[in-house]
Each structure stands twice: as structure tokens, then as C-alpha cells.
Design brief:
Layout: E1 11-16, H1 31-48, E2 52-57, H2 68-73, H3 75-79, E3 82-84, H4 94-103, E4 107-112, H5 115-128, E5 132-136, H6 145-157, E6 161-163, H7 165-173, H8 181-195
Parallel strand pairs: 1-2, 1-4, 2-3, 4-5, 5-6
Helix pairs in contact: 1-7, 1-8, 5-6
């Protein structure tokens, strides 16, 4: 199958369960790294004018609300977030499925907390339904490193692309010197600056 680049015109960004409580269950990576990368994805999608879908699970329980930074960055997506009552696979929620279909995109960039619960199943489901999926590993995380590795391996075995934040940003921008590239370059700079601290 020929490779077709993900870009702002053919892809949608799906951020799943990046909630203030859920991130406390994540121990496979530093929380600050996952938050930084998640926000970099949100900023990139916003600058590129890509569809962004947010979803949360059981906000009134220990999972809590989505990260407040997402509300500040993407107020419309936050307002329209799909609030699931406890359904594990977001694609089993008809409201979420309808929102994804409404984007008109079949290339999906997905990240979620936790990888082994909230990301793997919608990624597998979307892939099975004919979408092309890239799972952003470093904007996701699991309870343990081993759990994360197993979930990422299972997704790869199913044909889902596993990528990093910087990798997908670079693919979406295509050219740092024109278009949205110069707008997103500072986001990339923020990541590298933090990595160097």
C-alpha cells in the first residue's frame, strides 16, 4: 500500500481522557512529559485548523475534568467534548463515533490516558472500521512501562502506526519555512528546550 502523508487536510486529532485524575494513574513516563506533548499536539492542531475531538470518562468520579490547559487552548473542542459515562472504548459511544464521522477524516491521530485502557481499544476499533490510525506514544501512558509496551506492541501488530509527538508534528507541517511551519516551530522549540533542562 502506498504511503500517504498525514496532513491538516486529511487528518483529525483525537485526544482521549487526558483528565486530571487519570494522569495520576499513569506511571510509565514523567507526567510533565505527557502533559507537554499532549498540549503540543493540541497547539499544532489548532494552528493547522485541524478538527480536534476531546472525550472524557466519568468526569464526576476520580478521573476528574480534562486538563485545564486543554480548555484554555481549545475552548470550542472542550465545550463540545464527548463526556462518556464509563464506556471504555470511546468508539463504542455513539456520540463519539458520530463526532469522528462528522470530521469527514479517515486518518486519525490519537493519544490517550491510559494507553492500555483508553487508547488501545478505540485505536483498534477505528483501524478495524477502515481508518488509518497513528497512536502518539509519548502523549499517552499506562500504569506501568511494561503495560505501555504491551499495549503499543499490540497496536503495531494490528497495523496501527506508533509515533511520537515531534514525529507527527513534522509530518503534519511538511515544511518548517512556510505555511503553518513558522507558527508551529515555536511549539517544537518549547519541547526541545524542556528536554534540555
Amino acid at each position: 500500500m502506498a504511503y500517504e502523508r498525514f496532513n491538516a487536510d486529511n487528518a483529525a486529532m483525537l485526544l482521549i481522557d487526558h483528565q486530571v485524575g487519570t494522569i495520576e494513574w499513569m506511571h510509565s513516563a514523567p507526567k510533565s512529559d505527557v502533559i507537554r506533548n499532549t498540549l503540543a499536539l493540541a497547539k499544532t492542531a489548532k494552528e493547522l485548523g485541524m478538527p480536534v475531538l476531546l472525550t472524557s470518562s466519568q468526569e464526576d468520579q476520580t478521573q476528574g475534568l480534562l486538563l485545564p490547559e486543554l480548555k484554555a487552548l481549545l475552548p470550542e473542542a472542550y465545550q463540545n467534548r464527548v463526556k462518556r459515562g464509563g464506556i471504555v472504548d470511546a468508539f463504542d459511544d455513539p456520540n463519539f463515533t458520530a463526532a469522528v464521522k462528522a470530521t469527514g477524516r479517515n486518518k486519525l491521530i490519537m493519544a490517550g490516558l491510559l494507553t492500555e485502557v483508553c487508547l488501545i481499544y478505540p485505536a483498534l476499533n477505528a483501524q478495524d472500521e477502515g481508518s488509518e490510525v497513528q497512536a502518539v506514544a509519548d502523549a499517552s501512558g499506562s500504569g506501568t512501562k511494561r503495560g505501555d509496551e504491551i499495549a503499543l506492541s499490540r497496536m503495531q501488530q494490528a497495523g496501527i502506526g506508533v509515533t511520537s509527538t515531534i514525529q507527527i508534528m513534522s509530518e503534519l507541517v511538511f515544511d518548517w519555512s512556510k505555511g503553518a511551519g513558522p507558527k508551529i516551530l515555536p511549539v517544537l522549540g518549547e519541547i526541545y528546550a524542556e528536554l534540555g533542562e
